[in-house]
Structures are given as C-alpha cells and as structure tokens.
Amino acid sequence: MNKLKAALSSMRLRTLPLSAGGVLLGILLAVADYRVNPLVAVLIVLTTLCLQILSNLSNELGDVLRGTDGEDRVGPSYGLNSGLLTVKDMKRLIGLFVILSMVSGTAMTWVSYGTLLKMDSILILLLGAFAIMGAMRYTLGRNPYGYRGLGDLFVFVFFGLVAVCGAYLVSCHTMFWRILLPSAAMGFFSMGVLNVNNMRDAETDAKNRVTVAIKLGEKRAKIYQTALIVFGWAAMIVYCQMRIFRWWHYGFVLTLPLFVIHLVGVWKRSGRGLDPMLPLLVMSSFLFALLGGAGMAINM
User: Of 279, 281, 239, which is closest to residue 260 (Cα–Cα)?
Assistant: First the structure.
C-alpha cells in the first residue's frame, strides 16, 4: 500500500489538468466546426494523460539519478525522494506507461482514421513516438534538454501546439492556421507553470542544471512570468476576434481573477512559498481551456 501511494505521488496527479486542458480545448474547437466521434475524444484525453504521467515519472528519475533532487529539495517529496520506491521500481513504472501510451495512441489513431496504414495515420503515430521520446528525454539520457534551458521550448511545443492542434487534427482530420492561436495560449500558460516550478527550485537546481529562471534571476523571471500570462490571454482574445462575435465565446474571461491572484502571489512570494502558485495556475489554465472551448462549441 505504501508503494502504491508513493507511485501515485510520483505520477504528480495535480499536474494532469494542464495537459488535459490543452487537448480538451482542441477537441472542443473541433466540435465547434465538425462532428467529433466521442470515443476518439476519450482516447485523445487518455493518451495525453499517459504521456503526462510518463513525463512526470521520467523527470523524477532523471533528477534523482543526476543528484538534482536530494535532501535539500524545496518542492514536494515524491516516491524516489521518500525512499519508498527504488530506481528499479521507477524504471518499471516508466516502462508500463510507455506501453500504455503506445497502446492508447495506436487505438486513438485506428478509431479516428479507421486504419493504421494511411499517410495521416502514420504521421500521427510518428508524432506519438516523438512525444514519448520527448517526455522521457526531459531529464533522462546523456544530454537531457531539461538541463540545458530548453524545457520552456518543450512545454510550449508539446503542451501547446501539439496538444491543441494535435487534438483538433485527430478529431476532425483537418487543420486551420488560426488554431495556432489557442494552441499558443496553452503553450504560454504551460511555460508559466514550468517557470514557477523553476523559480521555486532555483537554489537547488543551480548545482547541476540550467533553466530560464536561473538565467534570468528572480526579478526578471517574475517579469517573464507576467509576460507569459499576458501573451496567453492576448492569443486567445485574437482568436476569438477572428470568429463571428458571440458573447459566450468569451466565457474564459471568468477565469481572469484566478490569473490575477496567481501573478500577485508570484510577485509576493519566493522559494518554497511559490509552491501554491503551481496548482493555482494549472487549474486556472484548465478552466480557461474548458470555458474557452465550451463557449466555442455552443452553436446558437
């Protein structure tokens, strides 16, 4: 039972709404324009959650193996940090979620396209393979990009562009360039989540890794955080302006107070005190995506 609890803690379930929000936004935007198979939508979300958990597990293993997460860790303690899970246990969990991601992604592609042999299907499967490698290579491997200050680019691409555009494409088999705008919005918010995490852990991370927060320093990292939130909102508002005006398309505006509270907290806090700002931004981003997508999906 203790190992099960430790495994669940390492999966970092509180981060799942962030990845789910991106694909839900893509699915709902597809619903606004086309008919979407509900089973395809479910498999898109399931595949995304498997990939997010895979990323979280790989991140923890990589940080522990490199000595980044030790006794002086500022953030929450997970399975490996607590000693309840061994490196062998973590490798088995990672292997399990690689398999689950592959099975779910393959099923998603087959149900959506009706075959695995069409060019579109093959491209989706290749994108899934890159997503699996990307999730694992963040802190694992000989030269992980998460240790070279490239984590922000990774989350923008995979949590923003791939999540929203990919979900839209798999849902309705077509793509419009304007979908890049809500994709960018979720990408900026995801970068914000990573940036708060890196600001919180800057002191311990500085031992053996490079992050944007460390490069910028605390004050400029907070300015960067503010810019990311503003850019995310601007991208979504521009997207709404490109569509026929309906007041319910702007339902995401209801989340504005949450983002304001988040930024005020970021500017007032430092170090360990920033930790509550992480789940706040994750849930704010999820509600933003849900309300924004649902508003677009309503046809009246």
Answer: 281
Which own/partner contact pairs does 99-103 have at CB distance under 8 Å and 24+ positions apart?
100/50, 101/47, 101/50, 101/51, 101/54, 101/128, 101/131, 101/132, 101/135, 102/128, 102/132
pLDDT at position 300 is 47
Confidence at residue 70, expressed as pLDDT on a 0 to 100 scale: 56
This prediction's pTM: 0.93
Are 133 and 54 contacting, i.e. CB atoms less than 8 angstroms apart?
A: no
Q: Which pLDDT tens digit goes with each residue over 80-100?
A: 877 788 889 999 999 999 999
CA 53 to chain centre: 10
Q: Please list, in sequence order, all residues whose beta carbon lies within 8 angstroms of the beta carbon of residue 130, skipping any fewer than 6 positions away.
A: none
Tokens of 108: 């998603």
Distance CA 104, CA 140 (A): 23
Q: Residue 86 — φ and ψ, nearest 5°?
A: -95, 165
Per the CB < 8 A criterion, the answer to whether 262 and 280 are in contact is yes
